[in-house]
Amino acid sequence: MAKISLIVNGKPTTADIDPRTLLVNFLRENLRLTGTHIGCDTSQCGACIVHLDGKAVKSCTMLAVMADGHEIETIEGLAADGAPLHPMQEAFREHHGLQCGFCTPGMIMTAIDMVRRKGYDLDECTIREELEGNLCRCTGYQNIVASIAAGATAMAKSRIA
């Protein structure tokens, strides 16, 4: 067993885990943060994206022990229970950026990372390029792209980065 200590959604967390445990499995099984999805087991779909020290990573490609000493934010960490949604979450709701919803947490986490790296003024071409590592099997992406553009604008207005 390996002992890890990290901050998950702002809360210090310590656990003894099998050193072979993937971060996605640790989040889902140990911490019951099931918003981080396992979609492909090959790191190609993006459903498992979380933020590690503020940057988007595919949690199915990382061992949980690699997150020791770091800060993780999952989709559950964007808005507390009963609090208003994060502007990007609200934009996905308002602009119908989801259909079945399976890819949505990864899309939102990618979108927030995209805004942090590229700024608030995102054009369609940039958004589509940046979504290259995220797959959606339902929507055809048009509403996802519109949601991200609207979410970036809302983040700028509320000064959230």
Give the key terms.
single chain; 161 residues; alpha+beta; Ubiquitin-like (UB roll); five-stranded mixed beta sheet; 16% strand; globular
What does this structure look like?
The chain has 161 residues and is α+β, with helices and mostly antiparallel strands. It has 2 domains: 2-77, Ubiquitin-like (UB roll); 87-157, [2Fe-2S]-binding domain (DNA polymerase, domain 1, Orthogonal Bundle). Helices cover 34% and strands 16% of the residues. The chain has helices at 23-30, 87-94, 104-118, 124-130, 142-157, and strands spanning 2-8, 11-17, 49-52, 55-58, 71-73. It has a 5-stranded mixed β-sheet with strand order 2-1-5-3-4, with helices on one face. Helix 2 (87-94) runs antiparallel to helix 5 (142-157) and helix 3 crosses helix 5. The model has no long low-confidence stretch (mean pLDDT 95).
